[in-house]
Structure to design on (603 residues):
């Protein structure tokens, strides 16, 4: 059920990821310091504007205290060596965190955020960072971050700021917020499978029966896909819109969501009969912001479609293949692509402009390594190139409008650059740590399941295009026909048909939604017919292999990395404590405790 909760909607298109929508940076340093800070959590620029609007006048926020003031005239809240941390700097960071997380103001959180700022200064200004600063990948990521800051501002001005919400939409949202509904659903990864499930429901097959076929989650499998009660904002927006439009007992046609497809049956509604106009007015602003966020994704895609048509990008497959080969070699060594063979060969054409292999290689090299490393197929590379061409177009638009010069872009870039630095610094510190073999061996034994080969199955299959044929073959098997002979004669998967349907041992995970069904069956048992996309399959379990623990020496390097990850908070705290002893630090506790914030952040 949790897979259908609306927590975060990931952008799954590489084109969008690389081109327009900067990915949310990780909570690396925040996680490191027990998730007390969202220094890496960068919301959209509309949020930053909102924060600026509610910042207190810190010059009058603290009274009757002995204050130290910086030469800029701002109050000093803490010192790290010769560096002053100013009150406005802290309030910006702190309210950014409160706004992004919904946390209410309290002193322990204030102290944690300030400690994080001080630790970042220690790492960036009072430690040896020459290796990081000279790292080409680091420099590339900073350049990339600059573009992401510009693109973020462009998105805010050209998309988010232009989203409107009608009063009718607001009132519908208010009604839904005050009404709980319960529903059950069936999940399918493809539209074809969803249509098949819907057809089965129309023929009278129950949700209970179909849920046992489609879910691996034991709860949903055994309760007929029942999700319980939920309200507006809890679920995927498309799922939610359809669910709220149904009457109790009504079943929807297949609904496309970010996860695949769902068929929804509404079970019950529980409206709140006591809502008033005053309540609506009090919640109107929050509802408007939520609705704008819901509209943001479609609005972004519409904007992109209006300026860029990926179908008009033409590729030279040979040139692209050469780049992919070079990319595979360079990724293994974290170096640049150096395609010396045919660098002048035309590789891509879009809107009448031709790009040579060397030009495309240079563009691909501009992608940070952690993105570039995911480009492993020609289709991945095509998507990446489309994204880069789109990015070029968007950057050109941003420059023409002067967005790159806006102070908010500099502010966003500083935040992104700080996150990039902290990630590299974190990796450097963790990499340097030497763990005793005994510690790593202890971790290996404690987490042996992580170092165990997967369970494997050997199946025999017959795949045919029609249910009636599959059903007939199942009857023939029941009357003694040989499975291998039927597979050889009828199965449409040629390579397995030549082998009398035998597929050989493979990890259980290969069989997706059917893995538990196959694994829990007896050796020799025949299963099916089962719908597999547009085919129907009959399967026979030929053998099982239980996963075995892998020898420690073979996975020592991997176990060391996992062990360091588990110990990372302690490793970083030890490192920071050692660094802290070398540098004098001061916190002005009276200033920190007496800051007066806007009531929006108070309990």
């Amino acid at each position: 059920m949790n897979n259908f909760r609306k927590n975060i909607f990931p952008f799954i298109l590489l084109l969008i990821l690389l081109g327009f929508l900067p990915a949310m940076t990780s909570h690396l340093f925040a996680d490191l310091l027990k998730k007390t800070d969202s220094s890496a959590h960068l919301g959209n620029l509309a949020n930053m504007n909102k924060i600026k609007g509610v910042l207190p006048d810190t010059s009058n926020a603290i009274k009757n205290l002995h204050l130290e003031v910086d030469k800029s005239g701002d109050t000093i809240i803490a010192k790290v060596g010769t560096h002053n941390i100013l009150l406005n700097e802290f309030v910006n960071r702190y309210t950014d965190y409160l706004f992004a997380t919904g946390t209410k103001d309290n002193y322990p959180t204030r102290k944690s955020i300030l400690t994080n700022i001080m630790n970042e200064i220690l790492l960036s200004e009072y430690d040896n960072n020459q290796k990081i600063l000279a790292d080409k990948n680091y420099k590339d990521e900073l350049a990339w971050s600059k573009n992401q800051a510009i693109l973020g501002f462009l998105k805010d001005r050209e998309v988010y700021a232009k989203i409107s919400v009608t009063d009718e939409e607001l009132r519908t949202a208010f009604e839904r917020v005050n009404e709980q509904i319960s529903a059950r659903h069936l999940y399918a990864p493809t539209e074809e499978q969803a249509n098949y499930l819907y057809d089965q429901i129309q023929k009278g097959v129950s949700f209970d029966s179909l849920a046992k076929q489609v879910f691996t989650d034991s709860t949903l499998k055994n309760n007929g896909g029942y999700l319980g009660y939920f309200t507006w904002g809890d679920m995927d927006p498309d799922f939610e819109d359809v669910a709220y439009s149904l009457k109790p007992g009504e079943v929807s046609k297949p609904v496309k969501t970010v996860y695949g497809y769902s068929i929804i049956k509404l079970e019950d509604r529980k409206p709140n009969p006591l809502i008033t106009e005053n309540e609506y007015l009090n919640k109107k602003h929050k509802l408007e912001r939520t609705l704008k966020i819901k509209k943001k994704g479609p609005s972004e895609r519409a904007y992109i479609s209006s300026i860029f048509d990926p179908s008009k990008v033409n590729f030279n497959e040979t040139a692209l293949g050469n780049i992919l080969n070079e990319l595979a070699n360079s990724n293994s060594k974290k170096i640049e692509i150096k395609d010396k063979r045919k660098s002048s060969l035309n590789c891509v054409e879009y809107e009448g402009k031709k790009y040579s292999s060397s030009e495309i290689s240079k563009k691909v090299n501009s992608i940070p390594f952690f993105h570039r490393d995911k480009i492993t197929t020609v289709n991945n590379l095509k998507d990446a190139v489309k994204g880069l061409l789109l990015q070029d177009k968007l950057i050109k638009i941003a420059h023409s409008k002067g967005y790159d010069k806006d102070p908010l872009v500099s502010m966003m870039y500083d935040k992104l650059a700080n996150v990039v630095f902290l990630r590299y610094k974190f990796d450097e510190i963790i990499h340097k740590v030497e763990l005793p073999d005994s510690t790593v061996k202890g971790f290996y034994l404690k987490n042996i399941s992580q170092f165990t080969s997967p369970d494997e199955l050997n199946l025999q299959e017959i795949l045919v295009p029609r249910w009636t044929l599959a059903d007939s073959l199942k009857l023939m098997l029941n009357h003694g026909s040989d499975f291998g002979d039927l597979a050889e004669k009828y199965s449409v998967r040629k390579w397995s048909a030549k082998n009398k349907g035998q597929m050989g041992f493979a990890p259980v995970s290969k069989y997706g939604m059917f893995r538990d069904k196959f694994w829990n069956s007896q050796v020799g048992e025949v299963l099916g017919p089962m719908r597999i996309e547009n085919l129907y399959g009959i399967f026979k379990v030929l053998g099982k292999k239980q996963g075995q623990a892998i020898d420690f020496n073979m996975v020592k390097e991997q176990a060391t990395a996992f062990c360091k990850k588990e110990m990372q908070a302690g490793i970083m705290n030890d490192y920071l404590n050692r660094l802290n002893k070398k540098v004098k630090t001061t916190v002005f506790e009276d200033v920190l405790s007496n800051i007066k914030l806007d009531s929006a952040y108070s309990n």
Residues 1-64 have pLDDT under 50 and may be disordered.
